[in-house]
Amino acid sequence: MATNIRQRPSAPSPGSQLPPTRPTPNVARLLVVHGIGEERAGYSAALRAGIARAMRTALNRCLPHPPSSDDALFVAEEAQWDRYVSAQQEALRDALRKQIPRVVFTGLSWRLWWGAVLSRWLLRTRTRVVPFIGDILAYQRADAQRLIHSELDAALTRLAGHRGSPTAFSPLTVIAHSLGTVIASDFLWDRWMQAPRQLGGFVLHNFFTMGSPMAFYALKYGSGMIEQFDKPITIAPPGCWVNIFHVDDPMATALRPLNPAYAHAVLQDAEIRNAALLGAHTSYWSDSRVHEVIGHKLALDWLESRQALPTERLAALRQRYIQRLALG
Question: Can you say whether the dihedral through the CA atoms of 219, 326, 177, 232 is positive or negative?
Answer without folding.
Answer: negative
